[in-house]
């Protein structure tokens, strides 16, 4: 078959004629690669050609034309129609065809995200981007370059629940480190919006402790939020890093986050006045970091933390005493805090309305209900699955030639020929 490139019309004809089966699609893909420069040079004519193609039947060709048409500057007037066109394509395209050119699909989706942001309509991009991820993924464990884009749209559109749904998948396959950093960072912000602080801590922790050869801005911002969320959820923050954190992070992160470490130090004292003084002193800087809302949640949480400390000392206490101990303005305000904490399961207590006494109770959970047993069993099954995955990944890595070559180079530095008195020359002491 003659696959010579002569005009945009011939490209259109080839797309229409070679989209029927896998063999034809392979030929078409080769032809479209050759035609890419031609399509880009005719980018202004391409939108009219899309109406002659079916997004489902001609997905591969449609993708190439769409990508080329979006390479040209897009005017404000063109943007709404283009966004609608791309959203329709994402929804209707055949996954097996777009996976022949995943880089093109990713490029189109990223430009689509840029356009909905320029239109100040991030909500318009949430659904299509979620669909795009599902079509691009080979498995739910794979992190795609579109995950961070989707989560960013969810953050900006305040669609935290939808964003959170995609965070429930265990990610075990990562291609680009930057995608992982952004996925965890935006994911952490989604969890904050959902008040899922434990999951947020996990995601920010992943950013802070991930391997890195140089410090990056994502890790710095994640560390700031990691400190704040730790105070909100746990009531304390440890400045020590785990052993598996990179030396770069351990040496440098604290230098960029001193204001937040100062806040953690003030929080640890348990004194509202000192904490509020620290916040007021650095309010503008927290606001510039877009963290003032979180900082205010930290301040609010110290009341809860101080009430929890009281439960470790007293069995009964009056609302007036609680208000005085945690520096609340009135017994009524203390009652509201206690009731909210009871509702959230943060403490176990009863309030006697007659005499205003609070009785602190033990955790009633006996860990033998059907729901709890199912929860424990589910957690065990998940851990077993994860363990098998890690074992498999370890076996694959041990057979990876590039990894073995690097290990071999590292071992050369400790060659026994270099030993003298049991100590390598390069490590003489």
From TrEMBL:
Tell me any Pfam family this protein matches.
COP9_hel_rpt
SMART domains given in the database record:
PINT
**Principal subcellular localisation of the protein:** cytoplasm
Per its UniProt entry, which superkingdom is the organism in? Answer: Eukaryota
Query: Which BP terms from GO are recorded?
Result: ubiquitin-dependent protein catabolic process
Sequence similarity: Belongs to the CSN3 family.
Q: What is this protein called?
A: COP9 signalosome complex subunit 3
Name the lineage.
Eukaryota, Viridiplantae, Streptophyta, Embryophyta, Tracheophyta
């Amino acid at each position: 078959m003659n696959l010579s490139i002569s005009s945009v019309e011939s490209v259109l004809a080839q797309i229409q004629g070679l989209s029927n089966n896998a063999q034809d699609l392979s030929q078409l893909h080769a032809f479209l690669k050759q035609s890419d420069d031609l399509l880009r040079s005719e980018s202004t004519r391409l939108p009219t050609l899309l109406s002659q193609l079916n997004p489902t039947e001609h997905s591969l060709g449609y993708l190439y034309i769409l990508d080329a048409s979006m390479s040209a500057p897009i005017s404000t007037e063109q943007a709404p129609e283009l966004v609608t066109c791309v959203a329709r394509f994402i929804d209707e395209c055949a996954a097996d065809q777009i996976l022949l050119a995943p880089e093109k699909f990713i490029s189109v989706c990223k430009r689509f995200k840029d356009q909905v942001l320029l239109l100040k309509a991030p909500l318009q991009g949430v659904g299509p981007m979620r669909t795009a991820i599902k079509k691009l993924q080979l498995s739910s464990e794979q992190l795609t370059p579109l995950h961070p884009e989707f989560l960013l749209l969810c953050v900006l559109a305040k669609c935290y629940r939808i964003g959170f749904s995609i965070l429930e998948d265990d990610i075990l396959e990562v291609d680009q480190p930057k995608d992982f950093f952004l996925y965890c960072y935006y994911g952490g912000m989604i969890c904050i919006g959902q008040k899922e602080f434990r999951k947020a801590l996990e995601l920010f922790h992943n950013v802070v402790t991930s391997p890195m050869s140089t410090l990056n801005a994502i890790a710095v911002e994640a560390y700031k939020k990691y400190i704040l969320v730790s105070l909100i959820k746990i009531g304390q923050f440890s400045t020590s890093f785990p052993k598996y954190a990179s030396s770069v992070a351990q040496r440098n992160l604290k230098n960029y986050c001193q204001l937040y470490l100062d806040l953690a130090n003030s929080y640890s004292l348990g004194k509202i006045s000192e904490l509020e003084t620290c916040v007021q002193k650095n309010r503008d800087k927290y606001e510039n970091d877009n963290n003032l809302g979180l900082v205010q949640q930290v301040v609010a949480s110290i009341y809860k933390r101080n009430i929890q400390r009281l439960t470790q000392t007293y069995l009964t206490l009056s609302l007036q005493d609680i208000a005085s101990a945690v520096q609340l303005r009135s017994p009524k305000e203390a009652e509201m805090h206690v009731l909210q904490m009871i509702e959230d399961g943060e403490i176990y207590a009863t309030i006697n309305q007659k005499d205003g006494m609070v009785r602190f109770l033990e955790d009633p959970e006996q860990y033998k209900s059907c729901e709890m047993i199912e929860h424990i069993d589910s957690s065990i099954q998940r851990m077993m699955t994860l363990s098998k995955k890690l074992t498999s990944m370890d076996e694959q890595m041990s057979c990876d030639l590039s990894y073995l070559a690097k290990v071999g180079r590292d071992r050369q530095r400790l060659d026994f020929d270099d030993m003298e008195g049991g100590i390598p020359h390069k490590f003489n002491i």
